[in-house]
Amino acid sequence: MAYFEINNLHITHKSYEGEKDVLQIDHLEIQRGETYGLVGESGQGKTVLALAVQQLLACPPGKIVSGEVLLDGQDLLKLNQKQMQRSIRGSKMAMIFQDPMSCLNPVFTVGSIMTDVLHTRRQGLGRKEATREAVSLLQEVKLADAESILSKYPHQLSGGQRQRVIIALALACGAEFLIADEPTRNLDVTIQASILKLLKELQLKRGMTVLFIANNLSLVSAFCDRVGILYGGRIIEENDTAALIQNPQQEYTRVLLEAVNTESRIADPVESGEELLRVDHLKKYFDINDDIKHQKHLCLKAVDDVSFTLNKGEVLGIVGESGCGKSTLVNTILNLFEPTEGEVWFEGQQALGGGKKGGNAFKKNVQIVFQDPYWSLNPRWLIKDIVAEPIEVYEHLGEAEKLTRVKELLAMVGIGEDACYKYPHEFSGGQRQRIAIARSLASQPKLVVLDEPTSSIDVFSQEQILALIKDLKKRFGLTNILISHDLGVVHELANKIAVMYLGKIVEFGSAEDVFRHPIHPYTRALFDSIPTLTTRGMDALKTLEGQIPSPINPPPGCAFHERCAYACDKCSQCAPQPEDMGGGRMVSCLRARELAEG
Amino acid sequence: MNNLIQTLKPRIESFRESMYLLARNKLSLLALIVLVLLVLSAIFAKVLIPYPQDIADASHIEIKLQPPSAEHWMGTDELGRDIFSRVVYGARVSLSSALGAVGLSLLIGIPLGAIAGSFGGWVDNVIMRLTDIFLSFPPLLLAIAMVAIMGSGLNNAILAISLSWWPWYTRLLRGQAISVKERKFVQAAETIGTSRLKIIFKHIIPNCISPVIVQASMDIGGVILTLASLSFLGLGAQLPTPEWGLMISMGRTYFPDKWWYCIFPGVAIFITVLCFNLLGDAIREILDPKTRKK
Amino acid sequence: MLKYIIKRILSSIIVLLGVITITFFIARVIPSNPEVKWAGQRATQEQLEAARIELGLDKSLPEQYVIYLRDLLHGNLGMSLNTHQPVATELKRYMPATLELVLLAFLLAVLIGIPLGIYSAKKKDKMLDHVSRFFSIGAVSLPTFWVALFLQLIFYKSLSLLPIGGRISVEATIFQSMPKITGLLLLDCLLTGNFALMGDAFRHIILPCITISLYPIGLVARMTRSALLEILGEDYITAGHSYGLRDSKMLWKYALKNSLGTTATDVALSMGYTLTDTFLVEAIFSWPGIGSYIANAVTSLDYPAIIGVTLFGACCYIILNLLADIIIASDPRVRL
Which residue of C has its CA nearest to B233? Predict the structure, then answer.
């Protein structure tokens, strides 16, 4: 008999449109000690499943119609809340949640939360013993300085630390079955790997069984023994990890695999044209005014002395972890922020602060497509008005002509003309992103910035949007700046790469060079910490220790030296300058030459 | 025609959703029905009431202060006027005055809030300090002081209530405007090069006005209560206007022996305000994105 | 933390200055002929002239404003037209009675409102929740002055259980000497051990106290319920369940502490309403407090008294809000 088993579980959700099926699982079983990966995109019912088996699903609107969930032969759905609390939750199964910030109570210290959980299970536990136990748990999840963490509030910890605390809480009562719901989703990539490694280690040490929920296959391939693909509330395919990756049966699985496969995708080559955009020592500092703290004038160096050039027809991919300043850089180039220092040249002309007229000409030529296509379209406007907004600013056309233009633009991105009189919320994410692209092309720009253009839409649409972008780029000879944390997307589109860390570009060069032979230690660490389909087992995954320093108070010398595996004494004293490695390659590292040679 | 249907479709959808959520709560549905009836009877009051002349200065001393009976469902007052007629007509007075007061507050509150939220900086600071100052008077007290000085009367009471009520709407709209300003479509409009004024009027205000309107319609209950309190103090409506608060105040002289004079207008106030509050509560729940999300 | 409190106090002072300015406008700028209001409708020309000089209306507005501020700084709220006594002195005399009523109502609001809200949230969508919700919405929908009359009708007229008004019965005022220590009659009786008088005073305070506490009870219960429900929907509550924490612990310890800030603001807000409701209710129950004072002032257009009470009320309200903000600041999420 399997350790954990789900049979014929059917869950519906009631709304004004009537009852809708959200989950219909015929059979799922997990053996003791196994790691089962459940993969699907958001909205496919992963979290519903995780909550339902613990009887934590909000009912109504949810409703468990039928089915059984067996843990060690005991049907959990037959237990009432009290029994679940007494004998199952915490002691037999526990869950690790997605967002480490929102699932720790902000008004209690870590210590108080932990001792509460410990006390629930063992009433007689004294205060001292509970604290000792909490410290040993925190040490088990490899939190250095466990005692001091106990007295801290959740907001005083970094994302990685919080996730470790949550893992410790899940372990606190000795649960043997762990549900990990995208435990690394909101963490920086370099932190992700270390959390995953920790989980695996603990699993082996404690002999736990893990149900690992993920939204893409790359994490699962390294972590899980078996994988099930969840689509539309059903498990459409299930197999051993290696077999599933090698031989996917379903179209959806294939697309999911394709989405994380970086190797097969290469950007179209471009003949280098003339210079279109030159960014010269651009700086953007934000003043921090803390009303309550009254601290002395502080500034956040979001973009710190960035220079690069971009030629016509090229695509520049900017990569880096969240908070590295990539969005601020782009917003400053777009003139949404006033730069603190530095210049931006567009087609040989000064682009920023050139008076209203000069500014407008620049704005017409540079457009942006945002990450989330829902909020980038005004929900109260009709599609025709949304797409026509740039036309109204730059051209004076009659209503009829304008409508014709809008229809042309929509046709270009593959949206029918009946869309004109609809509102944004009537479209899917992918369609909305197409509409946003149509709008960005309406003023006939030369440079289009793509800010994570595919990260909030489903994989099917992702593929199509990427194809559309490539196609439009070819047809109109567009130049692009692409911001993305998804290296697959960058692989597919970018000719040039800029790697950012704490407001600076640490490595810049052609995509081929940077991907094939990264020089800067940070670039190497960044690429290594992202599991790919070929990563087998956790040992192959390289981790980057330490936290990302605050950009308000970066370390002296090279900002990366505290986490760098190649750091030497000089690195903490002397800030590296960009060094030309030839072939347009710039690396900001004191040991760049050594590293480049081997 | 097809276009029109297409344009209206999302509105209909969200209306259907709202009605679904509303219907789940039987009590609020009942409140809605009662309110609709109240509004209707306020509109057609003159036709509906049994003794239309009694809403003014008519006097039939011979039947004064009679307890409720088949002819006079709620009894008669000190001039022998039919209290039922006056209470029904009172709905018209209260509802229209409350509507006026809320409308006036919106007229002051919305533009100020939009300016504060959209411009920020010192403009925002000045406007928000001003609302702080107005909000630091206990509710009603400022209105009492203003009417007392300006002179009693329904119109002055409405004006005074609006002058002490607008800061709530300014605050609400400002908060909305600030969050809407952060939305990507506003940034998109900025990169497109749309002018600032157009961004404020076409992008920001249309996206933040509906919660303010909803709040305002829920406030009508509270305003009716305030107005009745002012009238009770003799500061609001003046004789012979059949205003509920004023009627209770007049009835006090004969209280508690002729209890019906005070009790029925009070019941009318209670039912009206209760319905507004019940409905408001339901609307708040409906608009809560957590209820609506899934 | 200390810095924040100082800053918050400073901003309260600025707001107070604004409040004073507004009352100045209401008192001196809006009325077309303040001297007529001062001297009365039938005043002679000379009396009017005297009133103009007495009010300082012969001086320019800025000068008047400075004088107004200077007077306030000395605690001078002007003279009442009815009694020709300084308003400040009269307020001092009437305040204890009002304070006693408001404090008791406040106590009821906290002791009944908060548990009711918690219970309602705990039993969401059960019968008890519906009843308590209906009660709290009903409580904020009732016209206070009408409730006062209604209670008199039942407990005085029909049941003859409780007195119709006053702070103490007439016989008691004749045969007993009133203890005066704090001015709060119930407390004073307790301190002097005069339990007979205390019982009498207690019988008198029941109805007005119930009347004015209805609104804050309803408001606090409603706000506590919604604040709690919002918190109970948070991820960390689900997470807590998943670690096996008990429901009762989650509610009483986790959720309640988080909702403390919101509850504190709500209590402060509801006290503002209570203060004004007191004004209406006191007159009906002939309670010798500030409310009766202002009700008299309103009917006789004693406007220095009206302005004085308004200013006093605003001061109380500002202080209450200040206290609420300081409580909220003890929330660790507001990083101090």
Answer: C295
Is A380 a domain residue? yes
The verdict on residue C99 lying in a domain is: yes
Contact across the interface for B138 and C18, Cβ inside 8 Å = no
Interface test with B, best of C35, C38, C137, C292 (most B CBs within 10 A): C137
Residue A421, chain B, CB below 8 Å: the answer is yes
Does residue A364 sit at the B interface (CB-CB below 8 Å)? yes
Query: How much is the ipTM here?
Result: 0.82
Domain count, chain C: 1
Distance from CA of A4 to the nearest CA of C (A): 17
Question: In 10 A of CB A150, how many CB atoms?
Answer: 20
Asked if B201 contacts B155 with a C-beta cutoff of 8 angstroms, the reply is no
| Three-class SS state of C25 | helix
User: Token pair for residue A511?
Assistant: 């995509």
Of B183, B187, B192, the CB nearest to A443: B192
Which chain B residues are Cβ-neighbours of C306 within 8 angstroms? Answer: 144-145, 148-149
B-chain residues near C36 (CB < 8 A): none
Size of interface A-B (CB pairs under 8 A): 78
Please tell me whether residues A252 and A296 are part of one structural domain. Answer: no
Does any domain span residue C212? yes
Measure C331 CA to nearest chain A CA, in Å: 7
DSSP, res A554: P
Residues A352 and A465 in one domain: yes
Residues spanned by the domain of C190: 93-303
Rounded to whole angstroms, the Cα distance separating B224 from B266 reads 12
**Domain finish residue from A211, A229, A260:** A260
- pLDDT, one tens digit per residue, over B148-202 is 888 888 999 999 999 989 999 998 899 888 888 888 888 888 888 888 888 888 8
Question: Who among B129, B134, B269 is closest to C143 (CB)?
Answer: B269
Examine the domain organization and report whether A296 and A323 are in the same domain: yes
Return the residue in C12, C22, C127 with the most chain B beta carbons within 10 A, the one to mutate for interface testing. Answer: C22
Cβ atoms < 10 Å from Cβ of A295 = 10
Contact by Cβ (8 Å): A581, A511: no
Q: Evaluate whether residue A282 is within a structural domain.
A: yes
Name the domain count of chain A.
Answer: 3
- Say whether B253 sits in a helix, a strand or coil: helix
pTM: 0.78
Strands (E), C118-179: none
Ramachandran quadrant class, A444 (left: phi over 0; alpha: psi -120 to 50; beta: rest):
left
Across the beta sheet with A226-231, the strand order is A93-96, A177-181, A209-214, A35-39, A226-231, A234-240
Residue A295 pLDDT: 52
Q: Is A212 helix (H, G, I), strand (E, B) or coil?
A: strand
Class of domain B89-294: mainly alpha
Task: Give the CATH number of the domain where residue A48 resides.
Answer: 3.40.50.300
Are A193 and A154 contained in the same domain?
no
Phi first, then psi: what are they for A215, rounded to 5°? Answer: -105, 0
The parent domain of residue A164 ranges over 101-174
- If asked whether residues A168 and A185 sit together in one domain, one would say no
| pLDDT tens readout for residues A259-290 | 777 666 666 677 667 888 898 888 888 876 65
Residue A67 parent element (H or E):
strand A62-71
Is A292's CB within 8 Å of C334's CB? yes
Kindly state the tokens that stand for A287: 């003043």
Residue of A47, A369, A378 to mutate when probing chain B, most B C-beta within 10 A: A378
- Are both A230 and A303 inside the same structural domain? no
